[in-house]
Design goal:
Length: 353
Amino acid sequence: MSFIETMRCSAREQPMHLVLPEATEPRTLQAARQIIDADLTASITLVGCPEEIERAAHSADCDLDGMHLVFPECCELRESFAADLYRLRRNRGLTVEQAWMQICDPLSFGAMLVRTEHADTLVAGAASSTAKVLKSVFTIIGIQPGVGLASSFFIMRLSGSDWGEHGYLLFSDCATIPDPDARQLSEIAISAAKSFRVLLQAEPKVAMLSFSTHGSACHEMVDKVVEATSLARLKCPDLLVDGDLQLDAALIPEVAAKKAPDSPIAGKANVLIFPDLNSGNIGYKLVQRLAGAEAYGPFLQGLAKPVSDLSRGCSVEDIVNTSVVALVQAARQKQPDWLIRSPGALTAAVSHN
């Protein structure tokens, strides 16, 4: 069973409420229909003018049966949502009148539905820039307590291999933070470990990547990785994390035995933290294109509620798959004390086709 098939099974087991604020976008409507028909969600809310949504659905030959349409301008929640937005942004100069108008934007209204737990997760970006999606998300939903930033990750699957966890690796950050400082890099590592545990249901082993292994090179770029590793250990003493590590020392036991014999994760890493966005973005694309890996993502992490941003070039399948992962994140994050029932059980299952 593949990763996405496993996520679909999990989504059906504990269905959540999905918000799609780009409700006149044809691919989004087609994806919503597929999600409903596959029983992957408890309900879907489409945000926008009902007449416009219905016209778009007709043009896309999409049946809206089973979907809930919300028009912000006429919704009974508009007043309370505008008041909430004003309280959030008044220190930034937002007026009551501006909040009243801004909450009518489908992205803002959808984000407020998630913030106030009228819905569980939101997926957008097929018709909006990443900057616009993230602005609404950061303004309204915000960051998890104790986390200073939102970042992103990819789930990489190398079929038929033993890399990472039964062929699965998590790469972070590959899409969001261009040049994180040591504190930000430590927070990316902690968030990535949580993402791995939530989605792969296995113990994360985090490698802080560098061109140096345990001080084999001296440079300020290495110093940043070393400091980030120390901060991550300080914040999460139980986290299995090590750095600075070169990629081969992180993944190959024979190399690890020579370069980092005392490391708790060298040669066994399943979460790879890249020192900057250049290396992260290049790294995941190299593995995807040259090694033929399946790349799922990018998914956001570190937010108070799970939200996913799409590429404007996404397919209907991309929207469905991204929504499914967001729904599973939402379900599992509602159980912060959940236990891994059998470490590696999920990853063992998804490694078989």
